[in-house]
Design a protein that fits this description.
Blueprint lengths: L7 E6 L6 H10 L3 E5 L5 H18 L4 E5 L14 E4 L4 E5 L9 E3 L3 H4 L7 E4 L4 E9 L2 E8 L1 E4 L4 E2 L12 H13 L3 E4 L5 H11 L4 E6 L2 H4 L2 H6 L3 E5 H7 L5 H15 L3 E4 L14 H12 L4 E4 L1 H4 L4 H16 L4 H6 L9 H16 L3 E6 L3 H8 L6 E5 L2 H6 L6 E5 L6 H14 L8 E7 L8 E8 L2
Parallel strand pairs: 1-2, 1-16, 2-3, 3-12, 5-6, 12-13, 13-14, 14-15, 15-16, 17-18, 17-20, 18-19
Antiparallel strand pairs: 4-10, 5-9, 7-8, 7-11, 8-9, 20-21
Helix pairs in contact: 1-12, 10-12
Length: 471
């Protein structure tokens, strides 16, 4: 299956997409990467879906990436005697370590790591920012607060502390168990939640030990202060706008999204824009115009992928949501102004043979009006460098490792195909011609531009550029 677009679609699996019929339908509708959300479901649920995905991959003849998204630390209040209370602006409200059910005056906050960093004047956000508290007095086991924004509050709602780096590890014991299981299954990407600093990524990389690509979810404002370092330690980035939008003013999020996309493109790392992209399609068969525009903006900005969460996991119209996202991307990429937006920025090339060959391939493809750029790659680095340039021509990645082919299903413009390594230069050209024609990229008489490295099969050795004509 060849996609008629460059940006990719990530779709989350869940109760609405658990059967082979439904998962096949969303793959055919346009899903390139399937997200397994480890905040929900059991290991048995994930194993069943994973087996189905690999069956579909074999039947469709196209690599499908599996993204295992770890839950991360969830900071929540305790419970209430009557399950729900109402808070009014100006009320006093106490947070403490007492596990007894709360009431109108207090509730348990079972996280000493939060209480330890609070100061008078610190803001606390509860229930995704619906409730705002200001700390008046605090100690190692309590915080006396004043209600700034009131409303209803029920059991175990989340807690956010804007502007504060919390002394917590990005990976909980649950995450470690989930990570071990995801790697045993064969996940291609692992997303680490609530990354605050480069050290969080370093720990994740150590635990994963090269068995999957590592993605940083940027959802804490503290991560923005060290964004470049976090990107450098990541294989990919997710703009997780849900929690980011809770701890930052809504008007700040669009600018942060653009900063994160730019930093990822600079580094040549795939970047996903996520959260509430087609939110109304959880219950409606079509999105709002604002939601369609939101998806389009991410595509104009050059994001590698856009993501569906509840829309595909638990929504009433999962297949329609994927199809709609596919239509929006195609519409943007066929817009007369699209290339001017994409070409307005290019990352600075490194002074390496691989970057020189990649840049030259792009220029040669433009001059020759080539049908596609063919990249032979083992580790995926060559294809990612080609993707970073956002060329007008499709990138056909001929990849010798299945795990690399699946990983590249996320990369902008890359059509990954599993193929054996070339034996010599003549075999390289013949294989590129054949697959370009079989995959629908090139017709007899058209030209293709080929990049590869000698000796064949050596990761990072890109040093050849050839022009060939398809017969």
């Amino acid at each position: 299956m060849r996609r008629e677009r460059s940006a990719k679609i990530v779709a989350t699996l869940g109760p609405a997409t658990s059967t082979k019929e439904r998962i096949t339908a969303i793959v055919r509708a346009g899903a390139d990467v399937l997200r397994f959300n480890f905040s929900h479901g059991t290991h048995a649920d994930h194993a069943e879906r994973y087996a189905i995905v690999r069956e579909i991959e074999k039947e469709q003849g196209r690599p499908i990436a599996v993204l295992a998204d770890l839950q991360g630390p969830k900071l929540r209040i305790g419970t209430f005697e009557k399950e729900r209370i109402g808070l009014t602006r100006g009320d006093g409200f106490r947070l403490d370590l007492d596990p007894a059910p709360g009431d109108q005056r207090r509730v348990c906050l079972p996280h000493t790591e939060i209480l330890s960093v609070l100061k008078p004047g610190t803001d606390l956000l509860l229930d995704d920012g619906r409730i705002q508290l200001e700390v008046l007095q605090c100690g190692p086991d309590f915080a006396e607060t004043r209600v700034v924004t009131g409303g209803g509050l029920s059991n175990r709602k989340g807690v956010n502390v804007p502007g504060v780096i919390l002394p917590i590890n990005a990976m909980t014991e649950k995450d470690r168990a989930d990570l071990h299981y995801a790697l045993e299954l064969g996940a291609d990407w692992v997303a680490l939640s609530f990354v605050q600093r480069p050290e969080d990524m370093a720990e994740g990389r150590r635990l994963i030990a090269g068995r999957a690509a590592v993605m940083a979810k940027i959802e804490k404002p503290a991560a923005m202060d060290r964004l470049r370092e976090i990107v450098e330690l990541s294989d990919g980035i997710m703009v997780a706008r849900g929690d980011l939008g809770v701890e930052m003013p809504p008007e700040a999020v669009p600018g942060l999204q653009k900063r994160i996309i730019r930093a990822s493109r600079d580094a040549g790392k795939p970047v996903i824009v996520a959260t509430q992209m087609l939110e109304s399609m959880v219950h409606a068969p079509s999105p709002t115009r604002a939601e369609a525009s939101d998806v389009a903006t991410a595509v104009y900005d050059g994001a590698d992928a856009v993501m569906l969460s509840a829309e595909s996991a638990s929504g009433e119209y999962p297949v329609e949501a994927v199809a709609m996202m596919d239509r929006v991307i195609k519409s943007v990429e066929h817009d007369q102004f699209y290339r001017s937006y994409v070409n307005a920025y290019h990352a600075e090339a490194e002074r390496t043979p691989a970057d020189a060959i990649t840049l030259a391939a792009n220029h040669v493809a433009d001059t020759m009006q080539a049908a596609c750029i063919v990249t032979y790659t083992t580790s995926g680095t060559t294809a990612l460098r080609a993707s970073r340039e956002r060329p007008e021509h499709p990138i056909l990645g001929l990849i010798t490792r299945k795990v690399t082919a699946r990983k590249l299903a996320l990369a902008w413009g890359v059509h990954p195909v599993f193929a054996k390594d070339a034996e010599d230069l003549d075999d390289m050209v013949q294989t590129a011609r054949r697959i370009a024609k079989e995959e629908g990229f090139a017709a007899p008489g058209s030209s293709i531009v080929i990049t590869a490295g000698l000796p064949f099969g050596t990761p990072g050795a890109t040093n050849i550029l050839r022009i060939a004509w398809v017969t």
